[in-house]
Write a structure and sequence with these properties.
single chain, alpha/beta, Alkaline Phosphatase, subunit A, 10 helices, four-stranded parallel sheet, 2 domains
Length: 357
Amino acid sequence: MENFSPNRRQFLKGAGVAMALPLLESLPEVRAAQKAAKTKGPVKRFVCLSNNYGIYKKGFFPSTAGTDYALTPTLKPLERHRKDFTVFSNLDHGNTGGHQGVPVLLSGVRPHLAAGFPEGNISLDQKMAEHVGAATRFPSLTVRVNEANLTSFTRTGVQVPAIDLRQTYRALFLEGPAAAKAKQRQQFKLHGSILDVVLEQAKGVKGQLGKQDQHKFEEYLDSVRSLEKKIVQQEPWVDRPKPKTDHPEPPQGKGTAADLKAMMELIALAIQTDSTRAITLSSGFVNGDFGLNGGYHGFSHHGNRDSHTSALMKIEANMTAQMAHLLDLLKAQEDPINGGNLLDHTMVFFGCGMATG
């Protein structure tokens, strides 16, 4: 008897599954991941949830240490998960500069100081993508809801563009037309050929440069090698079918809570389908939601005014409420690669690069 080895599309066609196809153990990509997990250890995932304006400390941080602390208003939505998370406090370095601290969250390095560090200001998610990116369709996902994402940077200091709710759904589940795939294959070949020429010519140029210029030239070559690595990682995925789902494309602009909840569901689906293992999300606030008249930025400069601090606690409690929803989804889904559930092997990190206004 022939071994039955269905791909995702064949399985869906035969079974009529009415949800995102889970990581079924009979599927080839899952077996490959299981084999890798046995030889290299469990498959790990990382999700970073952040905002660009800090957190109102009195609403977030417990007043006592240990396990029996009273949950603060901002942490209250996470109560059902309190055994699954830890709150770290007193990590503020006391530096000034306000919003300049936002991009530091996952790197520890301000972008304008990156040249003084061996790996620049590469962020944690992009560092992970360098190591595990070839195992999934997307080495990393950088997403946003009602706010720009300022936390993800490559080792050459490039800020990774973030995609919104609709773009995330389409990237995960919608197949491009055949002509677009053919064009993408041609682009990979063309770019690969160009990079080969650049790296070959670089051998003769470097020896003619002064010490300072050699350093700059090496940074340039690092970016070329990084691009070359991405091409090698991404090219095999052009012709592999994307996972199928009956989860509808979420509408955008439905408000702060609805948009963030929808993105959490897409993040859970991205992990469930093993489309990526490194995700960063920055979320914001839509003026007028929660009965508030004002912007998140303005509220963050609170000056201890009750009207502003109460607004911040409403905005930030929604963030932790949607985080709790993500944890619910990850706990509910079996992890066929590692065993247990998806949360067992997923780190969910909530934080900000700056403290508070």
